[in-house]
Amino acid sequence: MTKSSSNVMALAPPAPNKRETVCIFGTGDFGRALAHKLLQCGYPVVFGSRGSQQPSSVVPKDAEVLSHAEAAQKAAIIIIAIQRQHYNFLTSLAEVLRGKVLVDVSNNLKINQYPESNAEYLAQLVPGARVVKAFNTVSAWALQSGTLDASRQVFVCGDDTEAKKMVMDLVRALGLTPLDQGSLLAAQEIENYPLQLFPMWRFPVFLSLGLTMFFFIYSVALTVIHPYVYQKKDFSFFIAITIPNQVCPVMALTLLGLVYLPGILAAILQLCRGTKYRRFPDWLDKWMLCRKQLGLVALAFASVHVLYTLVMPIRSFVNWRTSNRIVSQALNNKTEPLDNTRAWISDSYLALGILGFFFFALLGITSLPSVSNSVNWREFRFVQSKLGYLTLVLCTAHTLVYGGKWFLVPSSYKWYLPPIYMLSLIVPCAVLVVKFVLVFPCLDKPLTQIRQGWERNPQHSK
Amino acid sequence: MTKSSSNVMALAPPAPNKRETVCIFGTGDFGRALAHKLLQCGYPVVFGSRGSQQPSSVVPKDAEVLSHAEAAQKAAIIIIAIQRQHYNFLTSLAEVLRGKVLVDVSNNLKINQYPESNAEYLAQLVPGARVVKAFNTVSAWALQSGTLDASRQVFVCGDDTEAKKMVMDLVRALGLTPLDQGSLLAAQEIENYPLQLFPMWRFPVFLSLGLTMFFFIYSVALTVIHPYVYQKKDFSFFIAITIPNQVCPVMALTLLGLVYLPGILAAILQLCRGTKYRRFPDWLDKWMLCRKQLGLVALAFASVHVLYTLVMPIRSFVNWRTSNRIVSQALNNKTEPLDNTRAWISDSYLALGILGFFFFALLGITSLPSVSNSVNWREFRFVQSKLGYLTLVLCTAHTLVYGGKWFLVPSSYKWYLPPIYMLSLIVPCAVLVVKFVLVFPCLDKPLTQIRQGWERNPQHSK
Amino acid sequence: MTKSSSNVMALAPPAPNKRETVCIFGTGDFGRALAHKLLQCGYPVVFGSRGSQQPSSVVPKDAEVLSHAEAAQKAAIIIIAIQRQHYNFLTSLAEVLRGKVLVDVSNNLKINQYPESNAEYLAQLVPGARVVKAFNTVSAWALQSGTLDASRQVFVCGDDTEAKKMVMDLVRALGLTPLDQGSLLAAQEIENYPLQLFPMWRFPVFLSLGLTMFFFIYSVALTVIHPYVYQKKDFSFFIAITIPNQVCPVMALTLLGLVYLPGILAAILQLCRGTKYRRFPDWLDKWMLCRKQLGLVALAFASVHVLYTLVMPIRSFVNWRTSNRIVSQALNNKTEPLDNTRAWISDSYLALGILGFFFFALLGITSLPSVSNSVNWREFRFVQSKLGYLTLVLCTAHTLVYGGKWFLVPSSYKWYLPPIYMLSLIVPCAVLVVKFVLVFPCLDKPLTQIRQGWERNPQHSK
């Protein structure tokens, strides 16, 4: 549905009045790019310009260039492709612009740069016109090159339904998807939208970078530096796979714990306060809002951990170690009997890890926008809370079974420091223990009541 | 696009009349949560209540509390946040509510609890009002905590376009996404929607749980109990990985066969009946409708099978077995020559499995809502039928090549029972054979004609 | 939200006038299928037919059959389920059809078969009617069987807002999702839509098939035929895994390079021309438009490469080779010392490959429609350009480290031909070198200016 039906134009008889003339104020980059695209789709374009002669050299050759007033009279839709600080001159055109559809395409340089949105400012300047906000999420470069994968969506808002409809039809004709965002009040948001750069991801990404750095250095110290200092062995190549494969699972488990920790804290807070109608502290609010992102970063670490683990038998070092072990067995003329306990432990933690990762990946798939949009609230809660805790339990058990046997062995505490996987167990174990306590009826019942609106001291909310 | 533009309110001059007062009838949990959210977004809120004094203690302190009639007069939009069984008193307010927009937010406890939807019932009670159904898919807890990942979508329906538009603008102002569902006739469906818990997944999940149970016990009997009884060997740790890795591929292949079986049955039925205009039996209809879910469960089993297979070289048991084999070779002073046939078989079934899984995963990706929405019917058919059968052929061949050499070896039939992978071949082989027969022109031609509307005995449809 | 609320009909009192009669012209396959579905959803259906008696034998028994004029009078919505070449007779019904909503459901056999769309042609034939295009993306078979996964979406367009709204409500009542595509000008596109079969995928798929063929034969020659000719060794089973696992990474890397090559060429072209307002050559335009598809094909090859690599330790041939190596070590009574350089190289290229694949998969996930719709242009650019080049660098480094040591060894050039992985490095290395040059300020600054609309010789664009 992307190609414009401009080829219709060549043959259909009433072509001239099929596509209405569009007027563009401003011959800057975006104005010209939009004009190119409009001409390509069969719309006559007229530019409004201060001096009617000078800018004609840069506008597309099929477009007319007139003075602002003349150009505005030729079209029902006028696209204001100039910067907000130059809007003032429009007040002098108020008479000509009466009843016209003014499309504000402007963007700012900073989020919430002005008290009111550019579109609302424009509506105040030219009260007789019907202002519609649109096209600001589309880049000139994308319009020009046709590579519109990202921003095929054009948010449209405006107070006049008819004007909005005209603009939405224009958007569709250019092969884009208009999204009605309601009245002009939404303009502020629409103007802020293209300025964002993953605002929800900032905290999870920086947190995990910091933690990764810490765990990496910790792991290098214990795995590379310690044997070098005490045994003069050079394991520097561990930095490529062995150490990342220690850090990744630790990060995955810790972050997964941090996804469920704020829910636990919120429950405790609500139990203490006896009401759900008091706001949480700001940091808890923010933490709760980026749980999805934290979980996805954790899933990324888990995926890398899986890959690092599965390439192990291909590694030159592992092959060398295996060969040496077998050769020395052969030279000693003995075959080992099967150690049933070891087989149990090895298979158990692998199986737990696989199942944990499987459910983790399932959670990840459910958080894809199109999937989470197609489930209702009850189903989403079921997946995220039931499946989420199952994942946490499986992954914690995976780590416990993997490292459990070394908990009480003093030699695993090099430099009196616990191995790295023990650190990763702190958060998830704490979460699971508190969650287990909260499931008891004596705590679960009041909590459920509070979440249904019951208040211990109703007068407090006054 | 999620943050509400409440910060606009602080500065824009005509703020007071920018956001219109919203009236809420009912001070229950949902009413209060909605009031909180509305106040947060800059809407003045007035509660309508039976006694105007009593409930003021629990409502947000910025909201006014008045009698029902007084409150209704203050606002154009009245949100009816009370339960259906208490709607009756609204008839006495008919005069005040004339022309007002009544928003029904109610939900029921059971699917299709009442003959008509709550919103239609409300419209019958207060004929002069303009009833709109909305907000019922949003939970109070989600509104309160801002964690609206799942149900950002608000289904809206109503007979009055203007009223619907007002409610949709309100929905957008709260940072939610309104979805126009047409006239009030859609209310029944919208009210049923939040009560569902994966209705399409129930049969596939229970079927696969039952089958998994059966195959698990079957596999334990042959792989653990049989060697214990006859050879006194304890392979109990096989329960962790070896047996799941036998059950998972068997389940995946069987379920994949069950995805394509109903299509085959439908074709046979249509050929016998000579028309496509007679309904299929109910069970076949239901089966056909949950094919996608069956396929996704099969893909889940296949994914777990892949992971279980890839960890094999890391397993302690496998390492022990390999070491022993090599050590005994070394002790016997001989090296084996390369067995070309074995290498061919091993590489073939691995390659077939990898390609089968790859196409299976591709099918899974195509069934993501956003992907399947962006392909047309012709493309969807191409992927699901051509690629689907290719997957089935590859996975069946993978199993046949894997186990083929043991088909005629009596020792593989322990307790006279066939190994588990042979069972998994029954359904897919049956499907492929019948499909192969149906491809012959003498059957394919009449079937195509029937599917294009041709009938063998037209009078039957009368 | 898929079940129709037909069960409401049984109980709600004012049922008769709740669902309005729908008239269908044409008793062909689609007409009958639609009638079935409409009746199922509680709509009375009346067929308009040439002879009012004859076709009654094939239409559903609950539907009435009348002459065209009589049938049209009974309903506000008339569905024109006949082929375009038979539209002519409608001109004689112009009087009866005045003000009626005519729904054009027709499709053509070829893209752009007629100069104007069928719906526009219909609107010209019956100027008094309100023509709406709809339902053409839904297949009769899908309507009948209820398996509507693919095409739940119904594109609707029309010049009359009220008529469009009525049709959209009808669409919703049938459990489908209407998508407003604007005015009747969009009909051409909507009619072309269901005729497409992955138009954007054709070039990437054929290109990769051709390249795969070439690399496969090249690899068979060097890996199977060469040792057979010179050493009489039969490695024919390499065709199953070893050779695909050489071809897949080579294809992945080459295609990934081809994704970024057109961007580089476009930049050079813009620098030479000194303007962004001149169109690129057609081949470059087309190439740029299918970069996403090229990238996804590359990702598919990379995924298969990962699976092929990870099954290596399970392969019978690899086990045999390992055993033999260890046994001969044991027989020679010696254990090898750890080769630190080899360990470094092996771990490095594995780690680079894992990270490269991880970022590649991330790019793939971001290109899912629902994910790319939820990011803005700035975020999309960040991911696709920054993350994309990171992936290219990692994957190129992976190949370089893997094969680097053999670059200067003459024995790796069998038949004077370079090993296959060297061929795969040509495109990505060329891209990275040119990109590195373009990053220098002396080239980056003018390029940025040009992309912001600056022109070196403005008069050229006249």
Automatic annotation (TrEMBL), chains A, B, C:
Bilayer topology annotation: Multi-pass membrane protein
Protein name: STEA4 Metalloreductase
Record gene name: Steap4
Parts of the chain that traverse the membrane: 205-230, 250-272, 293-314, 348-366, 387-408, 420-443
Highest taxon of the lineage: Eukaryota
Domain Ferric oxidoreductase intervals: 250-395
Major location (coarse): membrane
Protein keywords: Copper, Endosome, FAD, Flavoprotein, Ion transport, Iron, Iron transport, Membrane, Metal-binding, Oxidoreductase, Transmembrane, Transmembrane helix, Transport
A GO term, aspect molecular function: ferric-chelate reductase (NADPH) activity
Cofactor(s) the record lists: FAD; heme b
GO cellular component, one term: plasma membrane
Family that this chain belongs to: Belongs to the STEAP family.
The keyword Plastid appears for this protein: no
